[in-house]
Amino acid sequence: MVSQAKIKSWVIQFLRDQKYGDYQIEFNGKPGKDAGYMSDINFLTVKCAHSNEEKILHIILKHDYFQQRETIKNAFIIETLMYHTVLPTFRSFELRKNVDDVFDSAPKYFYSLQDQNTQVILIENVTNKGYKMHDRRRALDMDHCKLILREYGKLHALSLAFRDQHPEEFRDLCRRFPNIHAIFAAQKDMQEYVESRIEEMVNVLKINGDVELSVRLQAELEDGFKIEDDEIRAVDEQYVICHGDNWNNNYMFKYSANLFRITAAKSPIQ
């Protein structure tokens, strides 16, 4: 377990780099056990001064200290890239185009750092603005789903427009993303999990009398579970930069605020 002193040192590095002074750091605990599967999450409040103004920063600090798994490392690379580079690039594009209804469903990004032992991301804790997580044990109702899909639609449309008008810059952004889905797929336990789910679907189709579809799905299973990302990019002219991890713990609701965790260049339908 990482000590509070270590976590505090990361916050101090952020404050010093960003020219905050006269700071006081308060720890506000952690989320429940069912959050943060790929990182350790801490809530902090920082009282400080910046440009002769008093500030109060509500911070979520996430880190993967000494977790050397390839998937976790790449997830942090992706999340940092999304907050630090992609979203600011998209926002500048929206401003140049005088977009009124901008994509604004991600928390404020403060800082990130990495060394040989850890990767750290600091973002705004939006619970102080009234956002709440949906109970992950309950299915999302239609209103929640519509909110999420509306924001996804904005992000995908923005990505398509940027790709159309700045193709080289868009390709450069996409090249920076590790193919985390392929990394997940290469893991033996993930392959076994997905194949077992496919077997269940094959059996359900057979029980329901849809023999033709069950045979086609069985053929996919026999070929082995794989993600042909390069092939998708080669033939799909609609691929975009998207969220990539659509489940309850990755959303907070007031209107809709997405916490990006696994992001990749993919078709919107994937």
From TrEMBL:
InterPro entries: CHK_kinase-like, EcKL, Kinase-like_dom_sf. Coiled coil: none annotated. It comes from the Eukaryota. Residues 121-267 form the CHK kinase-like domain. Pfam families: EcKL (PF02958). This is Uncharacterized protein LOC114327961. It comes from Diabrotica virgifera virgifera (western corn rootworm).
